[in-house]
Design a protein that fits this description.
Elements lengths: L10 E5 L5 H9 L31 H6 L4 E7 L2 E10 L4 E9 L8 H15 L4 E3 L7 H7 L6
Parallel strand pairs: 4-5
Antiparallel strand pairs: 1-2, 2-3, 3-4
C-alpha cells in the first residue's frame, strides 16, 4: 500500500511588533540589488544589534508606521521571517508602500504576492484608495513583480 502524505505549510501574516525589530533589520540588510533569489541563504539570520542607518523608519516600526496611520506586516512560516512590508499615508486617500522585502531563499513562492495582497486589504480596510510603490531599476525581480497584473 502506498500512502502519500501532503504537508501543508501555513503562512502567517500578522502585524509587526517591537519584538520583530532585529529580524526586520536582518532581512533588510540582505542584498537586494540585481537577481538575488538564493535558496542557500539560511532562513535564520544573525540578528544585528542596531537598525540600518539608511532606513531609520525600521528602528521603530510601531512609531514610524503604525502611529502615523499606516501598517507594517510580516510573513512567517514555522517561526521564520519570510517577508515584510508596510505603508504610510501620504494623503487622506493614498498610502506609500515601503520596505517590502522577501527572504532570498523563498522568492518565487508567492510570498511577495501574499504580502502585497495583505497590505492592499489593510489599506482598503482603513479607507485608503490608492497605493504607490517605487522600485529601483537595479532590482529586476521587484520590477518584474510590480509590472505583472494586478499591479500594472
Amino acid at each position: 500500500m502506498l500512502v502519500l502524505l501532503t504537508l501543508r505549510i501555513v503562512l502567517v501574516v500578522r502585524r509587526a511588533s517591537s519584538f520583530d525589530s532585529q529580524r526586520l533589520w536582518a532581512l533588510n540588510n540582505l542584498p537586494n540589488v540585481g537577481h538575488t533569489a538564493d535558496a542557500k541563504v539560511p532562513l535564520d539570520l544573525p540578528p544585528p544589534q542596531h537598525p540600518p542607518e539608511a532606513f531609520p523608519d525600521l528602528a521603530d516600526v510601531e512609531s514610524s508606521f503604525l502611529a502615523a496611520g499606516g501598517e507594517f506586516v510580516v510573513v512567517e512560516e514555522d517561526g521564520h521571517l519570510l517577508g515584510m512590508g508596510g505603508f504610510k499615508p501620504v494623503s487622506s486617500a493614498a498610502v506609500e508602500v515601503l520596505r517590502v522585502r522577501v527572504h532570498p531563499a523563498v522568492r518565487r513562492r508567492g510570498i511577495g504576492r501574499r504580502l502585497m495582497h495583505e497590505l492592499e486589504r489593510r489599506a482598503g480596510d482603513a479607507d485608503y484608495r490608492e497605493l504607490t510603490l517605487d522600485t529601483a531599476t537595479n532590482q529586476p525581480d521587484a520590477v518584474s513583480f510590480t509590472t505583472e497584473p494586478p499591479w500594472v
